[in-house]
Amino acid sequence: MTENLFIEQCIVCGHNFAKLFIPEHEQPLETLAWPKSFKEAKTCKNYLLKYVRCVNCGHIWNTNFDYREIPYKDSNNLMFNKGQKWQNETGKVADYILDFLKPGMRVVEIGCGNGEMIKCIAKKMPKCKFYCFDPNGGIKHDLQNIHFFQSLFLPDSSISKFKPDLIISRHVLEHLNSPSSFLQEIVFYASKTGYFPHVYFEVPCVDNAITENRISDFYYEHNSHFTRSSFSCFFQNNGCNIESIHSIYNNEVICGLATIKPQFKQLQYAQETDNYYNAVCLSIPEMKKCQINILKKQKPIAIWGGSGKAATFINFFDFNNNDFPLVVDSDVRKLGFYVPKTGQKIMSPDILLKEKDVIIIVPSKWRLPDIYQEIKCLGIQYSEILYENNGVLVHMED
What we know:
Radius of gyration: 30 Å
Low-confidence stretches: none
Structural class: alpha/beta
Shape: elongated
């Protein structure tokens, strides 16, 4: 067994170990490059393909893929989809979705293209509403219950606006840099808005391609190649309960229906993060007021600590060298060095022995008990010890 192992994070399950799947090589775009002459064909731009496979979930992707390189707005994807068997399978998918729908339901389709299937469903379910999104597509119809938007579907605003009972996305995931991020965004904003739609995804399945050692399935425009295993992981790892997974078209395509699970922890962490962010923003002007008040006292001021957490504090709140030139540290290894950016030379705490009524600022609260003991042991005469708490400097009580 050849090694060809890589530390590469899987775009589906997040595992960090993968194997090279196909020898690295360069090829032009194969579905969207439409050269109009022999010369154009010979000078087509090449793109590096480095397909790797996750050893955890079996997913395959091109680590050199860049979605911005795909000219979806300028070229048409002329993939053949008029075959009778394919049309029959598409009809079965439509029937599967119709069995799920009830009158009054709202359906969103992401990446609807020309809307061929959704038009078929909408005709049979006139009391349902259908909202179709595709920045590069277009639906021609005379149906009152279809609303087309030539734009991206934005979960942060669209879920609360359209309140979908079902989100459909067919043959979109394989084109994305990060399919998991796509689903995670839907799941998060569903939890935030309190609407929990079902999701139906359909993608090519490469299980047959692997078994038969086929190469034609792997081209630049398709970044992400799902196996049945990685398709299951896609739902399970991203906040969904799988209702059904089935294959169609001789097992060349895989379909999945799932329900979104409420993500209360995510909402909690998001709220905590907002609270912290807002508190930090408010602390900047408040700390400036503290600095001004301390300087007004016209007493010697020492910041205890010159690296790590202390340096972070000094730089973030701009305890500059002009106003706060004295920085001390009891770690002898740091003496003689300078605080990054602000430039105070780090001195020994012994220098404070010749000062009286010094104001000592301790940036790192968790080091405060030890620093207090060191101050007492050295016999430093201080007027007050201050430490950061909730974005301001507060007095330490003896």
